[in-house]
Amino acid sequence: MYESDLCRTVTMLAIDPSKKLSFQRLISNGDLVIVYERHNSMKAIKVCDGSELQNRFGVFKHSDWIGKPFGSKVLSNKGGFVYLLAPTPELWTLVLSHRTQILYIADISFVVMYLEIVPGCVVLESGTGSGSLTTSLARAVAPCGHVYTFDFHEQRAAAAKEDFEKTGVSSMITVGVRDIQGQGFPEEFCGMADSVFLDLPQPWLTMPSAAKMLKQDAVLCSFSPCIEQVQRSCETLKKDFTDIRTFEVLLRTYEVKEGSLDCGNINKGDSPQSLPCKRKQSSSRSSNGTNKSSATTVMAKPCSEAKGHTGYLTFARLKCL
Questions:
Q1: Secondary structure of residue 203 in the 3-state scheme
Q2: In the chain, what are the domain boundaries?
Q3: Which of 98, 193, 240, 258 sits most deeply, having the most CB atoms within 10 A of its CB?
Q4: Residue 315: strand, helix, or coil
């Protein structure tokens, strides 16, 4: 490892306690919490002493939440319960207000890894949108890195800035109002960025500017929903970039549960070893007086609400001079 690389690594791993992103404290009045009812029912709520949450599980007083650690189970007046979770980037992505189409966890994790983002990095992003990716980028560069994100829509940028303050990542994010597609990135960032992320209708217009912003051997990512956008982008990238690759991330979720399997209807020729009865077998008498064998086994099947195509992720590395 060269001396310059060693110094860069030490700088990246330095920790500033005042900027450390942590939820290892008790819930206070004014905090944002994620109220978890079940895996497909969560909501973000600001804790206000004197306020109440009413849902199908009963009435929950905010005053009972104050002083409890994140992750606590709290009871309602009816004995129902919810969990109070910290607004981590993963959970925030599932509950935030959709001002634009957002990136979800599968794409976000892929982006963070392939952009080689580590603590201490400086990341440029356009556009901000609903701030789903921006929040994860901030957590990835914490505690001493920074994300500079731009959106041409002033109201949208202001709403995103409010969300970053709610989730506790505002110290690592600077929100700017700028038409990056038309004007490019500000010249003050020339040669400073470790990574650039683009989510624009015509990203190829911004790529020459992005190349000037990146450090040597740094990586750019462009998200596009249409393959025609990818094709145009790749042609433009060839001038200043190398190692150009495009990915489509498809996530398949499975439902795994224990259930009963009817082993009574066995075709002739089937051996007992071929039956997926992995746990225990029991014998019961059916209505016609015959014995019927059943087994309890673990079954897995894809969830019916599988998400398909979200978009294409194109990565490219800046050519070394």
A1: helix
A2: 32-86, 91-250+308-318
A3: 193
A4: strand
Rounded to a whole number, what is the distance in angstroms from the first to the last CA of the chain? 21
> What residue has token string 């890195």?
145
Letter string b/e over residues 261-288, b meaning 16 or more CB atoms within 10 A of that residue's CB: bebeeeeeeeeeeeeebeeeeeeeeeee
Provide CATH code, domain 32-86.
3.10.330.20
- Could you tell me the two tokens for 129? 């949108």
133 is an annotated ligand-binding site residue: yes
d(CA 43, CA 83): 11
pLDDT one-digit tens code per residue, 141-200 = 999 999 999 999 999 999 999 999 989 899 999 999 999 999 999 999 999 999 999 999
CA–CA dist 73, 272 (Å, integer)? 45
Can you give the pTM of this predicted structure?
A: 0.77
Q: What is the pLDDT of residues 115-150, one digit of tens each?
A: 999 999 999 999 999 999 999 999 999 999 999 999
| Residue for token pair 């897995």 | 300
Query: Could you give the 3-state DSSP secondary structure of residue 181?
Result: helix
Residue 199 marked ligand-binding? yes
132 among annotated binding-site residues: yes
Among 233, 235, 175, 240, which residue's Cα sits nearest to residue 214? 240
CA distance 104 to 221: 16
**Is domain 91-250+308-318 in CATH 3.40.50.150, yes or no?**
yes
CA dihedral over 114, 117, 122, 127, signed as positive or negative: positive
